[in-house]
Amino acid sequence: MGQTEGGSGRGIGRRSLIVGGVAAAGLGTAGALAWDELSRLWWRMPGVEKPRVEGAVDYGGARWVAASSANWRRADRPDDYAIDMVIIHVTQGSFDSAVQVFQDPAHGAASHYVVREDGHITQMIRELDVAFHAGNREYNERSVGIEHAGFVDRPRDFTDAMYAASARLTAGICRRYDIPVDREHIIGHVEVPGTDHTDPGPHWDWERYMRLVRRARTAPTAPTSATPT
Asked: What percent of the residues of the chain are helix, what percent strand, and what percent coil, each to the nearest 5?
């Protein structure tokens, strides 16, 4: 299941943005690049909210259920953090229990998506935002996390419907962010540096899963993203 982000946050002060912008203005091309970076951070300041559409999903087949705001960090990906990875998790519990704990602010972790045995997909965090799911801040910032209901030592939990639905979801994510469909960019939680988790475990059929993702990635594009930001 998801794991807390790790690392300490770094606040961005209004004075830092103003002073940095003034300094950048006199530095030619380098200054312009620095100011462009600063300009993308303005909305992170206290009291500034980037407009969002309530209940919007990034994958058209998903149902929206919001995770607690304590379990993710507001962002503007891929503008502020490039997305180049999908991380596969197993919940070590039921679908309902995963959704419930991700709504609990005391849990401290959540993934973007949860996939049920019958292929149903719930989205709990926008792909724009950083979910606390990998236990590694850098990997959280660059990835989309997908939980799968079940237990790592119970292969019957990984159904045909689950594999197929998850593969279509991952293929859509790879299409949106131009992520290569390979095992360097689609990884298990166990492969995240510093993690103490073992999911998705030895019974997750990576060869089958990657074959399904590749097939879905090259299929004719269907409208899978939903309402704009």
From this structure: 35, 15, 50
Amino acid residing at 132: F
Selection from 42, 50, 1, 43 nearest residue 21 by Cα? 42
Return the structure tokens found at 120: 């149903």
What is the percent of the chain with per-residue pLDDT over 90, rounded to a whole number?
70
Report whether 123 contacts 107 (CB < 8 A): no
DSSP helix/strand/coil, 25: helix
Pairing of strands 113-115, 121-123: antiparallel
CATH of 62-218, one of 3.40.80.10, 3.20.20.140, 3.40.50.720, 3.30.420.40: 3.40.80.10
Distance, CA of 197 to chain centre:
17
Structural Rg of the chain based on CA atoms: 18
The answer to whether the CB of 179 falls within 8 A of the CB of 191 is no
Give residue 187's identity as a one-letter amino acid code: I
Is the omega angle on the peptide bond into residue 78 within 30 degrees of 0, that is, cis? yes
User: pLDDT confidence of 52, banded at 50, 70, 90?
Assistant: confident
Side chain identity at 38, as an amino acid letter?
Answer: L
Find the DSSP H helices in 119-220: 137-142, 160-177, 206-218
